[in-house]
Amino acid sequence: MNDPKNLYPARKINPILLILGLAVCALLLIIIGLLVFRGPPLPPPGGRNPTPVAGPGQVVPRVDVPRPPKPPEPVDSGRITGTAQVGKTYEMVIKGTTESEGTSKSWGIKTVIYMQWIFECAVDRFIESNDGNQIVETRLFKAVRSVRVDAKVKDIGFDFGLPGDLILGFLGTYDPDSFLIFETVAPFARLLSKSLLQSQLDEEAKVLGTVDSLNGKKVRLTFENGKGVTQIEPIGCSLTADERNYLFATAVLGDCFIMPDLKGKVGSKWNVDGQNLAGLIDPSLHGQTTGSVSIERTEDIKSGDQNVAQMRITAGSINIDSTTPEKYDIGKFVPRGILVFDLEKQFVQSAELTGDITIENCSRDHILFETRFQARPKLRVSYTCKMR
Q: Which residue from 119, 117, 120, 115 is spatially nearest to 205, judged by alpha carbons?
């Protein structure tokens, strides 16, 4: 009878194969660990709510908004006709930037990065009609885009450019609602500070870009005195719920409230509701603005052939809320700085503001998603408006 031990003779294990097998297992464990600990993936495009709620030419009434903004206070009809002049186009450009130290899950847990965020928006408002009570305007979002650079070097220092100048034109070739990941900072090289070489950032940097879903869209807004925006109509485009809610919170007569008394004296002070400062906030947040700021009229001067009043924001804050039943998004901006108001044409000509910004939560599709600041960052905002 055979010895049972000899029925299955022992096989010698090739040491090279053993080492290769262990190496493969270790590599798999590393990959799994990275997938687990890097956190959620970078936000996909259309993450807010890409399903349209209004198609081209579809009139949307205010009652369709789940949380409509509070109606603005009534304004004198003369101020209304002076602030939104029929047949005129108001060309607005708003830019903002912030640079801070923080952490981002896209780098891994507890990885300290230095981040700079730049946004810019160009909007044309054409006033179709204005009878002193009802304003009908078309609003074209010519550019709504932003860039974020994460790096392990301090003082990224992208040049913010001059007021009114658009600096992110290279994003103009991408479709709206695009989230972009760049492997090099080459497209941004001309914006780099002279002290920082492109090679320094290319080695360890993540460059993200977004073209917002509002980019290129055109809408018709109907505003009624004391009621706010009462209906919107997309022109040649569709609107999502986020976009609809944002447009109904638009401050059509914000300039009237920012400068309530054209004949006021230097030194006079007043408060402005945050909803009337919506034009100073990044549109890609798709948020409603609340809160309040205090403004002081500091100087009346002659600028070329224009009589302008300078004002200063001295206190208060603006809350930014884009919360829906599906998500919780909220932020806060504490602006301080100068606004210049054209007394004859009755609109805010420019603003240069700086202040702390706090973002409690941000949508998966926004460029600041999963960013945590170790110190409260400063946001710089530049606004210009021209009438033609």
A: 115
The dihedrals phi and psi of 26, each to the nearest 5 degrees, come to: -65, -40
DSSP secondary structure, 329-363, as one string = -EEEEEEEEEEEEETTTTEEEEEEEEEEEEEEE--
Q: Whats the size of the chain, residue-wise?
A: 388
Q: How far is CA 205 from CA 96, 148, 155, 187, 197, in A?
A: 21, 10, 13, 13, 12
Instruction: Please identify every stretch of the chain with a pLDDT value under 70, giving residue numbers as ranges.
Output: 1-49, 102-113, 153-158, 184-205, 322-330, 360-375
Nearest to 113 by CA among 149, 158, 150, 148: 150
232 φ/ψ angles, rounded to the nearest 5 degrees: -130, 155
Residues 74, 80 contacting (CB under 8 angstroms): no
- Look at the block and give the residue holding tokens 């903004």: 69
Q: What does the pLDDT read at residue 367?
A: 55
Question: 177: alpha, beta or left, given left = phi > 0 and alpha = psi -120 to 50?
Answer: left
List C-alpha distances in Å: 16 to 23, 101, 312: 11, 47, 75
pLDDT at 44: 42
Beta partners for residue 123, in sequence order: 92, 141
Handedness of CA 219, 331, 119, 205 (dihedral sign): negative
Q: Tokens standing for 73?
A: 């206070």
Whole-angstrom Cα distance, residue 302 to residue 308? 6
- The amino acid occupying position 290 is T
Residue 13 amino acid letter: I
For residue range 83-102, list pLDDT tens digits in order.
999 999 999 999 998 877 76
How many C-beta neighbours within 10 Å does residue 352 have? 15
Q: Rounded to whole angstroms, what are the CA distances from 168 to 4, 163, 173, 380?
A: 78, 14, 11, 17
Give the CA diameter of the chain.
Answer: 118
DSSP-based three-state secondary structure for 46? coil
Cβ of 305: how many Cβ atoms within 10 Å? 6
**Looking up tokens 């399903």, which residue turns up?**
51
Which residues, listed in sequence order, are joined to residue 379 by a DSSP beta bridge? 98, 355
